[in-house]
Fold this protein.
Amino acid sequence: MINIPNVKLGIISVSRDCFPIELSGARREAIVAACGDIYECKITVENENDMLKAAADVKAAGVNALVVFLGNFGPETPETLLAKHFCGPTMFVAAAEDAADKLINGRGDAYCGMLNCSYNLGLRNLKAYIPEYPVGTASEIAEMIAEFIPIARALIGVSKLKILSYGPRPQDFMACNAPIKQLFNMGVEIQENSELDLLVAFNKHKDDPRIPEVIADMERELGDGNKMAGILPKLAQFEVTLLDLAEKNKGSCEYVAFANKCWPAFQTEFGFVPCYVNSRMAARGIPVSCEVDIYGVLSEYIGTCVSATPVTLLDINNSVPADMYEQDIKGKFDYTLTDTFMGFHCGNTPMCQLTKGELKHQLIMHRLLEKDKEPDITRGTLEGDIKPGKITFYRVQGTAEGGLTAYIANGEVLPVATRSFGGIGIFAIKEMGRFYRHVLVGDRYPHHGAVAFGHHGKAIYEVFKFLGVPKISYNQPASLPYPEENPFK
């Protein structure tokens, strides 16, 4: 993954001057021993001068994500100023007491100090990550720190991300609206371009000397799934075009994602479907969303950072037929029919997330653009059933009113053949029917959802919360009705 941050953690312990400073230092050392790979700042912060020295120390060490550890009650002003002066993702945790026989001279009261710390962070409008239960022993805090790493990786990535969009959305895709003010609020840069800019850049890469090498790599990846070999030169030309655009347009940012128009003029002017290239970019950690879905690709990038694996963007596409449910799902898996649906896109899911990928033509585009003809300009999709296993379905969205909202649901892809086309899978999420009606439909989300492979809902939730998303929905159990759900149904 070439397009996500490497997290270097550091830890600073703090101490209230009326508590033993040695207590905080010793407890910090125990955490470092339990963590292993974390930079230990030897300066224990008691006052603002200590704070400045400690902040400078971790910055000089290349630390980009910080753990502030309340080894005892802690000095609320210096400890919270660490979050201000560090200027990176900061986590606050506190020490649990060691033993019953140490509650006189060895009591730290960090349980109490975390309350003042939280209040002081609020006074200063400082954001920090505080775990669900932020008080623990060295081994427990080491586990909290491990959970902080993917959150920090996503927050660093988003703060240094530029989204490059090419082209307006296709006709009748207003649902993928993208009011850009909320992007800036989250620290994301956006550079909007014409699809003509993309075409000009593509044409300039004709006969690029890297094309044969990319073709060879595509052939290795596809193997016997290379069903449309004749389109590979154009796809390779497009791939080097995107890679060069990413590098050329980073500007002050470090990471890039694309939101590109992909039909219908794309086929007639470029001469292919870009899906397979989009899948290969996602596999590198550079997601490319379909249909100029700017918030979709932001969602993909967040999932890429959190999971450190390739993600995809799918249509929340179609219901599972009742006969398929009866034959292949009922009695074999603990899901109702309305818990299931099919997630689909033309072919942008990376090869590593498919059971068997094949390069084909896009059936829907073929109907529209090449009716009664052999596929030509509609070649270029990567098709296959998505691998079964745990998934997280999620999205952050700029609303039509200019606000910000998000949803997250953990679920799975079932090991059931789809019998369909495209990059597609049968998804199962508990209480999906109600989630579909009262969140996806009720809160007016577009048809695209990002998919991270594995259960990453906990980390993604914390990222969304840190980014200031005021409403984060999830698939509520039947015992917990949605606010607008009819109680008389």
